[in-house]
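Quick question: what would this complex look like in 3D?
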Amino acid sequence: MKLYGTSLSPYVRKVLVVLAEKGVEVQHVPLRFHDPDPRFRAASPFGKIPALEDEGFFLADSSAIIQYLDRKHPEPAMLPREARDLGRAIWFDELGDTELFPVLIKPFVQRFLRPQLMNQPCDEAVVARCMTEELPRLFDYLDGQVDGPFLVGGAFSLADISVATGFHNLHLAGEAVDPERWPRLASYVTGILERPSFRTAIAARKG
Ligand SMILES: N[C@@H](CCC(=O)N[C@@H](CS)C(=O)NCC(=O)O)C(=O)O
């Protein structure tokens, strides 16, 4: 099994966490998005990362890949069985992918990607607006959802992976959840990112 995509991507990290939780061996190919590698492009028609190749089967999109892996390697389950828990796990997956990460990534782009990989200066005004105007409403919501170590059904699941993954990129930008303003969210994020599977995914080659 091959997983394409640098572990700097929160979406790639989601899949690396699932593989680590399940103890599935993978050959990690840490390329960047839009790489011309023909096998990668066979798996990801629009050049987005992550993409998976598994014995001639090709699949893109972190959520699609995780559902495939969860069916193929059922233990431990990343998708809850109970109907409402499953619905909420998919809600948090969607929230992480489409609402949270596009905002969490802004400080990462400015302070990490632009200076380190794009040879461009950081725009601190973008970071300040993100931290003071754009993230607080998301943090308010999430702080109200946390009432223990896991978001759904009393167990680690796709919900936790998708919500927590982007916070690593925020940390790489030198920012974090303010523990005085959002105490539950701050300690929840710390707990999830300290799991061995997240540590393994974060340590994976970045490319
Ligand atoms: N819904 C996709 C999103 C993947 C995605 O947008 N990945 C970014 C890198 S973090 C990418 O490949 N961007 C290139 C592009 O949008 O063309 C997933 O969950 O895998």
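Answer marked as accepted. The first strand starts at residue 2 and ends at 4.
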